[in-house]
Amino acid sequence: YVTDAMTGKVNLLVRLEGRDRSKKPLMLLNHFDVVPVDRKAWSVEPFAGIIKDGWIWGRGAMDMKGTGVIHLFSLLTMKQMGMK
Predict the structure, then answer these.
(1) Residue 61 and residue 53: Cα distance in Å, rounded?
(2) CA end-to-end distance (rounded Å), the chain
């Protein structure tokens, strides 16, 4: 990971070596950022993880976490298989 000294934000960089550097790379992009919460804009407690009307309501419940896990396992699988 790389930390930006000015902002303190962390970037996670993973690179699997390819066969031919003249070709375009595959990039998997996600985010870890967290933004402040305006509780007045919420009809439920934003940090409670409430199930309401068949949905999970809470800050980050519909974020990129699932995509991040898919990216992680994709990279691990490619590495384990020796893919280039």
Answers:
(1) 14
(2) 22
Q: How confident is the model at residue 22 (pLDDT cuts 50, 70, 90)?
A: very high
pLDDT band at 70 (very low <50, low <70, confident <90, very high): very high
Separation in Å, CA 65 to CA 31, 41, 42, 72, 77:
9, 22, 21, 11, 18
User: What pTM does this model have?
Assistant: 0.62
Percent helix, percent strand, percent coil in the chain, to nearest 5: 25, 10, 65
Do 24 and 36 touch, CB atoms closer than 8 A?
Answer: no
Query: How many Å apart are CA 72 and CA 48, to the nearest integer?
Result: 27
